[in-house]
Design goal:
By secondary structure, the chain is α+β, with helices and mostly antiparallel strands. It is built from two helices and five strands, in the order αβββαββ. It has a five-stranded antiparallel β-sheet.
């Protein structure tokens, strides 16, 4: 005898509504994970097949994207937060086109807005920026 019997939780074949709901949620979770993995592989492959380009560019703006996740403590009492930061730089090319690239924290710290130099990138992958020295008498 099921604990749900008499409460209308079973379908005509005897499958509980809970089990159907469980499998639907499980399928959605697996689908989201597969979608994220396939998307990441697609972007990685597209970047690998893109030409490596080195162009004259200017650091237009720098931005940080913050994400915070709340976790429960192991003992079940309390919680803690984990913060993730992504660093992005918007470069403006000589032809006026703007390219937004994700950079590592160390690179982000070294770049200054309005720096000019040679940008190297491949697809959406940042490879480096070599700033040109400015003449201190004209800046």
């Amino acid at each position: 005898m099921s604990i749900y019997e008499g409460f209308g939780y079973e379908t005509s074949r005897g499958t509980s509504v809970f089990m159907i709901f469980f499998y639907v949620i499980l399928a959605l979770i697996i689908g989201v994970i597969l979608f994220a993995a396939i998307r990441a592989l697609y972007i990685w492959n597209k970047n690998n097949h893109s030409p490596r380009q080195t162009v004259h560019a200017e650091v237009f703006t720098k931005r940080q994207d913050f994400s915070t996740f709340r976790h429960n403590a192991n003992n079940g009492i309390g919680h803690y937060n984990t913060m993730y930061v992504k660093y992005f730089v918007l470069f403006q090319l000589d032809n006026g086109e703007k390219i937004r690239l994700k950079v590592k924290p160390g690179e982000y710290d070294l770049l200054r807005e309005r720096d000019k130099g040679m940008l190297t990138y491949q697809g959406t992958r940042y490879l480096g920026f070599e700033a040109q020295a400015e003449d201190p008498y004209f800046s």
